């Protein structure tokens, strides 16, 4: 999946041609949740839908990481569009202080609420910096939170953990295995991450068997 992060789709040159190239390569795509929040903050929900439809989006992201919107309100938006799009939602805030105030049970409750509303996948926030959401402001993974989520009974196949750097990727790969869903990966890091998943890089060389050629 290719994500055109935050509101970049509004300022990306030749967006139609880039999307055409993705579709030709059978690669799905979606626009960042912050774009949804921008439209909602200006009472333009229908305009957001029209923008997504203009580019034939099958997937959308719905989040409340910046604007003052409760998780229940977010879940209502998910339910409104879940029959028309595949919905990825996001839990966690852009502001690291707000995210740290969210205890593990609240994360689990919000994830469960989004899934019940119709989200196909729930993204756990970490930002491009890896310093919010499931991470502390110093970049450290909130391992206690991760363990609570792991033992919550949630379907881990429906969770996508943002992991924008190698340290986070390694921790999550080792905790959940090489098939864990990871997001917020820079395009320049895709091959490096794949070699970590396959045990073809020094960091995970001894963790998994040699893959089939």
Instruction: Identify low-pLDDT runs.
Output: none
Q: Find the count of extended strands (DSSP E, 2+ residues).
A: 7
Distance between the termini: 24 Å
Please count the helical segments: 9
When the domains are counted, the total is 1
Mass-distribution shape: globular
**Percent of residues in helical segments?**
40-55%
Output the helix-strand order.
Answer: EHEHHEHEHHEHEHEH
CATH topology: TIM Barrel
CATH architecture: Alpha-Beta Barrel
CATH class group? Alpha Beta
Derived structural class = alpha/beta
**What fraction of the residues are assigned to beta strands by DSSP?**
5-15%
Order of the strands making up the biggest sheet? 3-4-5-6-7
CATH homologous superfamily caption: Aldolase class I
From the alpha-carbon coordinates, what is the Rg to the nearest angstrom?
A: 17 Å
Summarize the biggest pleated sheet: 5 strands, parallel
Report the average pLDDT across residues.
96
